Amino acid sequence: MKRPGLPHPFARLALCAAFLTLAAGCDRQPGGASVSGDNAAVPNVRSYDATRPEGVSSPNDPITTTFYIPNAAVTDLYEIESSRIALRRAKSPRVKAFAQLMIRDHERTAANLKNFVASNPVNIALPKYLDARRAAMIQNLSKASDAEFDAVYVGQQAAAHQEAMNLHKSFANRGDYPKLKSLAAAAAKLVEHHGSLIRALDREI
Which among 62, 93, 44 has a CA at the least distance from the CA of 181? Predict the structure, then answer.
């Protein structure tokens, strides 16, 4: 049954940027590197009042390889970590099944990106840890009550996948490394499929 007070499923996607607001002390622009500060504000994952996803605002932004690779890697790290929490805490069997799928699929995309970096002269180190903003999202997810956990997890997933879709599609459309553009296109297709599953979950919880 739909939890009272939650936004309409499509409103979640349209207004998902509340999860993705820049943490205080962070400054990231498309085409540049991410710089994280120490005073990151913890976003309210159940608020939907921001204007747009942080980082890449459309699926057709010009992004460079040096921006795409670390941000794609952090996307995978966040999906895996948040979904491991959901496997332990989610009440809905469908949410648990979705979390298991996220771990499997994002471990695969993470491995694909790692193999690309190892096999091509891009000279970019993959991040091993979450940035401050996504670490704050994990903190909020971990602090969610048992009663609200499923809704918080699915809401975060809606936001994170919208941002990931913009990132992967932008690089696939306008990236500066042809071999990596095909990898981004495959990731975008996978994320798009995930988005349809999230919308279905959102109607159920």
Answer: 62
Distances (CA, A) of 116 to 49, 71, 89, 104: 37, 15, 34, 19
CB 82 within 8 A of CB 177: no
Q: Which two tokens stand for residue 67?
A: 């921006």
Measured torsion, CA atoms of residues 85, 43, 54, 167, in degrees rounded to the nearest 10: 0
Q: What is the pLDDT of residues 154-198, one digit of tens each?
A: 999 999 999 999 999 999 999 999 999 999 999 999 999 999 999
- pTM reported for the whole predicted model: 0.74
> At 73, is the secondary structure helix, strand, or coil?
helix
Closest to 81 (Cα-Cα) out of 121, 131, 117:
131
